[in-house]
């Protein structure tokens, strides 16, 4: 897809597509590759990559299967949460564009901020789409709230990379982890309140927010979206246990698969027992805290730089660690950039009814 857009698009649509234009990939890709290149330059020693010749390709196959299962789980989950208003084709497009947005936009915005727009273009009213995104956010946060005590039980003090960090920084990381856990718990509680207790309060909040002088022109639209959200919330609350059970299980499945990828990749090159695999899984939880506060698109540069600190001790040489950093980012980041460049033009053609303009 070129940087040129279909003609005569509404301003909001054009703005969204501009934010996903291919030229925005240059910065995150350059940052990530520069950090990986620096890691290799600093650490490379002849013979350090010898484990590549003895790789257990079964674990690499498992990693690919876990990736595929995760994405299929995401497709199933969004289709189920949207009450099958999406076809499987639409659900696949939504997930691929969502993942692409997560790679291109800063971590603080990510794909979640783009998701309501994507759902709206698939024919789901914005207010209703917001309610569905609220459900995904709620379940994602509840998974984190439940898993953290479990991983603390598994890893204990080893949850933090004491062996690679100074004591002061470990203490800071511990505080950041605790604050993030508290914030996520409170946010999950707010979402539970908004969906199950008093959805009308969300509408009032929107109206008050858009009553501010700078936002007043959109107050009527905000009220309409709030009304749609109230109706959607009432509908969601009316769903039976089966709806919430399938949504919860699929959420647990996709996030467990997401956190398991690093362990699968390391196991392909380093002999590993079950306890070590679980330990890596647990430490991945604290690793994600670093990525949550990253200001670069998709955490580019920061994800690569922090990886050796959290997982280098399980890999061995610094050169092999650098290689696994690169491999990890290929399958969890660069892969979705490529898939996004494939899916985005087709999606734009389908939802806008016009083929994007191409460069000469």
Give a quick rundown of the structure.
The chain is an all-alpha fold. 73% of the residues lie in helices and 0% in strands. The C terminus is likely disordered.
Features:
Flippase-like domain-containing protein, transmembrane, mainly alpha, 73% helix, 0% strand, L-PG_synthase/AglD, 360 residues, membrane, disordered C terminus
**How many helices?**
13
Instruction: Please report the distance between the alpha carbons of the first and last residues.
Output: 12 Å
Strand content: under 5%
What portion of residues is helical?
over 70%
**Beta-strand segment tally:** 0
Low-pLDDT ranges: 354-360
* Arithmetic mean pLDDT: 82
Order of helices and strands: HHHHHHHHHHHHH
Based on Cα principal axes, name the global outline: globular
Query: What is the count of distinct domains?
Result: 1
- What characterizes the major β-sheet? none
- Provide the structure class: mainly alpha
Instruction: Specify Rg, calculated over alpha carbons.
Output: 22 Å
What would you say this structure looks like, in words?
The chain is mainly α. The chain has one domain (11-352). 73% of the residues lie in helices and 0% in strands. It has helices spanning 11-19, 26-43, 57-81, 88-104, 110-121, 126-155, 167-197, 199-209, 219-237, 241-267, 274-292, 302-311, 318-352. The longest helix has 35 residues, at 318-352. The protein starts with 10 loop residues before the first helix and ends in an 8-residue tail after the last helix. Its main location: membrane. This is Flippase-like domain-containing protein. The chain crosses the membrane at residues 25-41, 57-76, 142-161, 173-196, 289-311, 323-344. It is a multi-pass membrane protein.
């Amino acid at each position: 897809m070129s940087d040129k857009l279909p003609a005569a698009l509404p301003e909001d649509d054009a703005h969204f597509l501009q934010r996903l234009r291919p030229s925005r990939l240059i910065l995150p890709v350059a940052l990530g590759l520069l950090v990986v290149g620096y890691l290799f330059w600093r650490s490379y020693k002849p013979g350090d990559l010898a484990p590549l010749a003895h790789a257990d390709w079964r674990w690499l196959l498992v990693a690919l299967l876990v990736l595929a299962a995760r994405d299929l789980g995401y497709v199933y989950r969004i289709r189920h949460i949207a009450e099958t208003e999406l076809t499987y084709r639409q659900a696949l497009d939504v997930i691929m564009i969502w993942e692409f947005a997560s790679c291109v936009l800063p971590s603080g915005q990510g794909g979640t901020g783009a998701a309501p727009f994507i759902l709206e273009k698939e024919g789901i009213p914005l207010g209703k789409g917001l309610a569905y995104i609220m459900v995904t956010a709620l379940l994602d946060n509840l998974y984190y709230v439940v898993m953290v005590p479990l991983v603390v039980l598994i890893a204990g003090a080893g949850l933090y990379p004491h062996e690679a960090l100074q004591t002061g920084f470990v203490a800071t990381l511990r505080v950041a982890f605790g604050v993030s856990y508290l914030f996520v718990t409170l946010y999950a509680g707010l979402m539970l309140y908004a969906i199950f207790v008093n959805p009308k309060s969300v509408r009032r909040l929107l109206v008050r927010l858009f009553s501010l002088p700078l936002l007043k022109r959109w107050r009527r639209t905000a009220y309409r979206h709030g009304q749609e959200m109230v109706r959607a919330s009432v509908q969601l609350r009316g769903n039976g246990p089966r709806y919430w059970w399938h949504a919860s299980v699929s959420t647990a499945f996709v996030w467990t698969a997401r956190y398991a990828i690093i362990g699968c990749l390391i196991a392909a090159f380093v002999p590993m027992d079950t306890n070590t695999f679980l330990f890596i899984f647990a430490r991945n939880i604290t690793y994600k805290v670093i990525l949550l506060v990253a200001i670069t698109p998709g955490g580019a540069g920061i994800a690569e730089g922090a990886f050796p600190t959290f997982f280098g001790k399980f890999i061995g040489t610094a050169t092999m660690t650098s290689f696994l950093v690169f491999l990890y980012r290929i399958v969890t980041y660069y892969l979705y950039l490529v898939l996004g460049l494939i899916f985005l033009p087709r999606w734009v053609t389908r939802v806008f009814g016009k083929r994007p303009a191409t460069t000469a």
